[in-house]
Amino acid sequence: MTTTTTDLPRSWRQTFIVLWLGCFITGMGFSMTMPFISLFINELGHFSHFQLNLYSGLAFAMTFISQALISPYWGALADQKGRKLMCLRAAGVMAITIFATGLSTNVWMIITLRFIQGIFSGYISNATALMAGETPHNRSGRVMTAMMTAGVTGNLIGPLLGGTLSGWFGYRIPFFITGGLMFLVFILTATLVTEHFTPITKATMKPMREIIDELPNVRLIGVMFITTMIIQASVMSINPIVSLYVKQLMHNHGNISFVAGVVAATPGLGTLIASSRVGRTMDHLGPQIVLLTGLAVATVLFIPMVFVTNPWQLAFWRFLLGLANAALTPAVQTILTLDTPADAFGRIFSYNQSFQASGAVLGSIVGSVISGAFSYEMVFIVTGLTLLVTLILVFVTRSKNDPNLTPNN
Length: 409
Prior knowledge:
409 residues, Growth Hormone, Chain: A
């Protein structure tokens, strides 16, 4: 973090540290509970293989369905009221809904609470937008990468902690702990985050049509939205079924929760290792080159995942995938930051969040249906092909002359 905060005001450093910690806890809380939700659901009833895969997909998807629908409204409100308020809204409601999920007595209670959580969620995206507005452009690559590292670090620790707690105390305990931690995030954000924001009245706020007309490369921004959706879909097509796939690979023997936690965590470890280098590379070579490289490597890495015969092979290839993933979301966010006017950050990032949520819905449902109807291996094949199409789309529409995306040499 020191390389990112040097020579910037003390209030900026404090805000960065608190928001980084908030994103870390949010990422950790999500990964403490989500990789094991299918196993939690399995304890709440007697389900067939197809039903369990479908309900697991729905439990994942419901948060993102509501998020996709409501994000543009929150984005417009963020441009009027500021991103700090949006962070507080997300942390406060998530604390309540996640804690309540641990009290669930049936699968539909879990699905309903996840839907409500999605309506008010969005801490990481709003914290990222807040930092984008507070950071000089020549540091955007490093700061966007650092903010992503927060969630990734949490995602790395979460499955290991969640798997251990679930194995010792049951699947409800991680939800209770996550709810308490999100309340802590609410308190820290309320008291320690400083946002230099000038409120924009609804009457003076530029219409979205006018903002689109002012963008230097509208087509590129649209492609970044689609890329965000596909990246998230590629992640979520696997996440809902990781623990079930590990269970199959282990032939239903051994400490499945812990091993599933390790497998779920390995991409985060890879991303954490690569993220610092990726951030500096983006500031020198430009985010478009980094994004194309990351997509190409990620596409290739899905091929060997089809042929794994034990969970440790799967963990190895997912670790390498994490190295490639370090180049994906931060590169997209950096392109959006550099190519979007400051007074439209909230709405542009909210639309990006809607596409991200749509990708999560698409990925979790498609992954669950494919794994239930065909096989887990088929999920990796479809995901790899989707990333290949995205790589081609980004390459064709990349900007060659946009001054905002010119590398800093």
